[in-house]
Amino acid sequence: MPWSNQGGGPWGSGGSKGPWGSGPQSSGPTPPDLEELLRRSQDKLRTVLPGGNLGGRGFALIALGAIVLWGISGFFRVEPDEVGVVLRFGKEVREVQPGLNYHLPYPIESVLTPKALQVRKIDVGMRIVDDLRRGTTVRDVPEESLMLTGDENIVDVDFSVLWRVDPKPDSVGKYLFNIQNPEGTVKAVAESAMREVIGRSEISQVLTIRQPIETAVQDLMQKTLDHYGSGILIQQVQMQKVDPPQQVIDSFRDVQAARADLERAQNEAQTYANRVVPEARGKAAQILQAADAYKSQTVAEAIGQTSRFTKIYDEYKKAPEVTRKRMYLETMERVLGGTDKIIIDSKGQAGSGVVPYLPLNELKTQTKTQSGGTR
Q: Angle, to 10 degrees, between the axis of helix 211-228 and the axis of helix 182-199?
């Protein structure tokens, strides 16, 4: 170099100071001479090329080799969890799937390979810390997890979001060019959506029912990210821990225990009602059926008595004396049929007036008994 053998450099004379005021470091290595490097490279190139000089054929071979290397540089590989986005002068032209692919060499085309097929997880309200002594621990982040419910209570919510690039066409391009920080965007949208849903719910719902809240947060996040044109798909929202603040958690647990006792008592009462009410209804139906049977029997007997009386009356009109005597005899038969009787002839003159009575019914009973014993 022109100043390599002089006492001073291009920024001063005397050689005691460098361009920023520091002296030369004599103990360090001496930088190589550029002219010497060029001369050595030319000598090596002459030994490789036929004829030993750079003629037209040599330049043609060099140009051909450069073109081949330039063309080969267009091959690229896309990993299994990636999607390739080919850019032509900075504009997206196509998407390629995992495997070996080719694009026009730089600077005509270039490729970006985001991990579009990978499902990613973002934690909000907590951080998972790997400790060599205690293993994996979860650290709470109150500034993210503390939220206000619709009934003006504070609740501590830790949740996770599973997301990936939307598999729809052109979603990878939106993911690359429409948002600058995808993970930060997803986390901010997740926290905002959860606060909005929690703000519309009561604390009792938040502490007991998780599925509707997770679904509402997922729908709201997807709607917001689609409005941004982010090309991101929210696959699932998982609520990890939902508790009141640490200062009042014991009181809330007492309230939950009381509510559990209330539900248990209501269930027991409902069980008792389910057992007693059908029994009472069965007994009521039985009484009604018995009453209906008694009613039918009484009405039928009344109708029969009426019909009998009508027939007797008709016969009475035809022969009053005979019918009256018959009615008398039948009545006496019913009255005296089941009693012991002594018949006295008041007009008897030979004796005491007692008429001997032969109990034919008792004789028949004794005869049946004796015949049964002899068998």
A: 130
